[in-house]
Amino acid sequence: MVNARSYISSNFTKSFLTIFLPFFLIISLVYLVKISALTSKIQISFVELLRLFSYSVPDILFYTLPLSFIAALANMLIKLSTDNELIALYALGLNANRILRGLFLVSLLFSFLLLTLSFLAMPMSKQLYKSFKEEKKAEAKLNIVPGKLGQKFGEYYVYIKGKENETFHDLVIYNRTNMDEEQFFASKDGKLNKHNGQTSLLLKDGYGYTYSKERLQQIQYATLEAFDTTKKKRFHFEDIVAYWSKASHDKDIMHRLLFFLFISLIPLLSVYLVAAFTMINPRYQSNHSFIVIFATTLFLYLIASSLDKWGNIPLLIIAILLTLGGGVILFQKRVARYF
């Protein structure tokens, strides 16, 4: 029995890796393209790009593992059936239930991994991703590029002709305080200052105009300091317990929790359902593995999507019991009664 379990496990591992790795790489490319699109708004280095991608890995694993498990399980059982290897195991005294028991233990490990990803890793990685974006956006506001129009510093539009080290040359700022008032300042030199978390733009040797409907004022100054008065958004991290405890009064989080829970249980729920149609006698039954994979995946994800929109705890329990019970009944009628 030990050797038979090892044999089935090794076949499942080969089938799983063959399917999972291409899935993972394809979806990773999609996420990398999405992350690289951020470079149009913020400047990030290659190391920071990899850092952002690492925050997306839990999401990628969560959405690829259930699909890969279903496909690997169906392909492995169909291959063992068509190669008459399952028939050989039956001849050695192993029935279908005993063969599937080892795979059921594997599905438990997969479900535990998915639960860990969805309820622990994903909330933290999403918060880290958002925090990183906010930090880079704040830095981008202070990264004034020479010769570029439309740059903003607080409420001011800024244009600089040149930059040497930390000093700006030939600098112009413009601000429209309201519909009837405008401000315009120019200086030969300027630089950014930071005092106790407050950022300002210090202008030297310049002049300015203040315009309103009633009057036009002109000033000449040796130094002028313009402060960034926009409110900074501070990202607040939540621990896992605080994050999921909001499900008690937030329906969106509750529905998300139900969705994550059902998706995490897909490996467990799909074992008997998939085996009912893929543990076949090749002499009398045809190979319909692709239909089985598609139908099982569609059925389970339709339930998960319904829970995400309209679900509650009683519906989740009913969906789990019906799916698991239906799979066991189909397996007993189509496979276990014969093998």
UniProtKB/TrEMBL annotation:
Residue ranges crossing the lipid bilayer per the database entry: 12-33, 60-78, 99-122, 257-277, 289-307, 313-331
One protein family per Pfam: LptF_LptG
InterPro entries in UniProt: LptG/LptF_permease, MFS_trans_sf
GO-annotated biological processes: lipopolysaccharide transport
Membrane topology according to the record: Multi-pass membrane protein
Subcellular location(s) per record: Cell membrane
Keywords: Cell membrane, Membrane, Transmembrane, Transmembrane helix
Cellular component annotations (GO), alphabetically ordered: ATP-binding cassette (ABC) transporter complex
Protein name (record): LptF/LptG family permease
